[in-house]
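Re: weekly structure request thread

Next one in the queue (90 aa):
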Amino acid sequence: MNMWQQLLTVFCILAALPLAVKVLWKLRLLPLALYFLSTRLFFPEWASAHETACIALFAGCVLFAVVLWAVKIIHRRREEREIQADLLAR
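Done, posted below.
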């Protein structure tokens, strides 16, 4: 890879980063992505030395996403039932 290709690659990554962060947050997967980035890229030695803490962090990130998805689904179903009840009452 020459210098221009490297610069173009870095520019594309930096340009796509805000969109990726926004999509990950909308899907409630940003904490999980940050977990994987930190344990695999930035601190692999710490992660291998503290396996129990890493497993707890991973479980917390997954639980965060699952709970928020469940809350969103429950909220939407409740809203649909209220709209149905309102329409049937008319």
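Residues 56 and 62 are 10 Å apart (CA to CA). The chain has a mean pLDDT of 91.
Next request, please.
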